[in-house]
Amino acid sequence: QVQLVESGGGLVQIGGSLRLSCTASGQTFSTRAMGWFRQAPGKAREFVAAFGPGSGSTAYADSVKGRFTISRDGAKSMVYLEMNRLKPEDTGVYYCAGRRSMVAATYDYWGQGTQVTVSS
After folding, report:
1. 100 vs 20: which has the higher pLDDT
2. Stretch 46-59: mean pLDDT, rounded?
3. What are the residue ranges of helices labelled H in 1-120?
4. Percent of the chain topping pLDDT 90
């Protein structure tokens, strides 16, 4: 069984930065098959960032391109989300998620989420 645990959320001012971390444990799978999603109050969960199929490739939602960076440390089974120039619309619960493999179409493993609040 896979367990994903996020950390690093909190309250930050507009324009500030946060770094989220996700630790994977249990069944071994590639950190390249992991990504980040978020859910704002009253809205559906949405994709934020993930690793692409090619070595070193990444994918981002248009709303976070140029501001957020996903990275990983495979040796530590950890994935990170560096968030810069934060905006109020970035507020929400951020979830780390994992797929069974790089070719899997769905994310089967989810963390409990970490709250990010961007406020003036």
Report:
1. 20
2. 90
3. none
4. 78
In sequence order, which residues have a C-beta less than 8 Å from that of residue 56 and are 6 or more positions away? none
Residue 80 belongs to what H/E stretch? Answer: strand 78-83
Enumerate residues 6+ apart whose C-beta is below 8 A from 68. Answer: 48, 49, 60, 81, 82, 83, 84
100 or 117: which carries more pLDDT confidence?
A: 117
Radius of gyration of the chain (CA): 13
Question: How far out from the chain centre does Cα 40 lie?
Answer: 14
Q: What letter would DSSP give residue 67?
A: T
HSE, side-chain direction, 13 A CA sphere, residue 81: 33
